Structure formats: structure tokens, C-alpha cells
Write the C-alpha cells for this entry.
Amino acid sequence: MRAFNKIATKGKLTLGLVFPIEAYNGSVPTMKNQEILAKRAEELGFKALWFRDVPFNDPLFGDAGQLYDPWIYMTHIMNQTQEITIGSASIILPLRHPVHTAKSINSLQLLSNERLILGIASGDRPIEYSAFNQALDNKSELFRDSFFYIKALQDDFPTYTSKFYGSTSGGIDLLPKYHKKTPMLVTGHSGQTLDWIAKHSDGWLYYPRDFKTLQLVMKQWQEALTKTKEKWKPFMQSLYIDIIKDSKAKPSPIHLGFKSGTSYLNAHLNLLESYGVNHVILNLKYSSRPAEELIEEIGEKVIPKFS
């Protein structure tokens, strides 16, 4: 839980970056200099690096993520950095077999010195389901079945009967063993009720919303935790930004975020922190400046206020 605690503290906000760490048009990024940028982000004080699970490039969707398989690329970046938290945003549970997912979790936790936290989702691209021979109508149930199967596989010689993915009878074991808890945060609703998410997840990953909507969402989250008799659990969100050189520039909207100077970015993040947001995943896709410049400026003018 060490990596989790670095980015999830009640009443505090931390910052992370999602791959690809670059601005690009269309669906496909260049993926140039990502290792250098990841190292520099860690040096500047960003608390987490996030990786997406995008099996196919859907040009109509407009975002192919970091191109590489998330487990392989997480391992690659893990080997280029020292201690920064490695997070998935998010692994698509219904489209991966739970045994393979559990084995990947255990392997990466042990190889990374426990730097992994797991964002999980049911997927937001319906066209992918047929490629995996899965029924879109089963999405919510597939997610739950995979979730509980992965949990069961943490036991020695596990016994679990899955409706969709098979069963283990206790006569075989999953190696390597990692008996500690890997934090699992549900992205969006993933076809589940908020009460289910509050009860079973270790936190909630959500999307950028206007402040009025965010206040409502945070109220619903706290009510769900209270209803299910759960203690505090973190709330995290993504945010697209385009930070221009004029630090005093006022905000203007972009997709799922805004263009502004660093002064407004700090003010915006301060408000998010006051509403109870614990971690913000910054996305630079729509930036008008090179990523190298942006992370340096954020590292100098923003990170110190949220460390």
C-alpha cells in the first residue's frame, strides 16, 4: 500500500501524468522520448504515471492510448524510474482473463517493489467486445465476475467458480505469490452501482466535471461510503490541460479540460482539493506546447503547492 499512500491522502491532492506524455493530433501518438519524460516527471515531484489499456485503435474514438500493452509498458517504465507510483487507468477486466490479470498484478508488484495500483474498468469502446467474443450485454456481470475471481486468486490454491471464465478447484496454485493487497479503483461506474463501488473497491476514478456537478458527485460518493459502512476511500479524476506561457491567462474550455495559465491551474486544483479530490491525472494530448516545456513549468509553479 506504500505506492497507494503516496497519492491518496485524505484532504490532500497529488498530481500524476498519463501516457503518452505528449501533444498529438488524431488517434496515434509518436511515443518519442517517453522514458526521458517519465524520469523527469519523477524528478519534478509528480507522484504517479498512468497507463491505459486500449486493445484496438478505433479512429472514431480518437485515442489509442500509449499503443503498447499496458503490462509490458508499465514494466518498461518501471525499469526507467525509481519510486514513482505506477498506475493503470484502466485495465479492461471483461476483455482480459482474470488469471492472466492476477498473474500480471503479482509479477509487477514483486518486480517493482510494490509500486503498482490498479485502475479497472468495463471498457468504453463497445466495438471491441465482439473481437474478444464477449457479449456487450454482459459487460457489468463480466466486470464483477472478473473482479471477484482476481481477488480469489490471491489465496493459496484458490477455489473459485466463475460464470464466464472457468474455475479453480484448489488443486492448482497461481505463482508468483503476492499476498498483500493491490489497491483496485473502479473507473467511472463500470456498469456497477455506486454502493457496489464504495463497498468493494479501494477508491473511485472519475472524469472531469464542472464544479457544481463535482460537488454533487462527491456528495454521492460520501453517501455511498456511509451507506455501505466503509471508511474514507480516495476520489481521483483525469484532467486535460493546455498551459500557455502567459501565467495569468484566464481559462477557456477544451475537451474534458481547459486552456489557461498556471495561475488558474493552481486555483482550479485548489478547488478540487477543497472538494475532496485526492489525485488528478493530467493529460497533455491537446497541449499547444511541447510536453518537455509543460512538465517543467508545472514542476516549478504547480507541484510545490501540492506536495
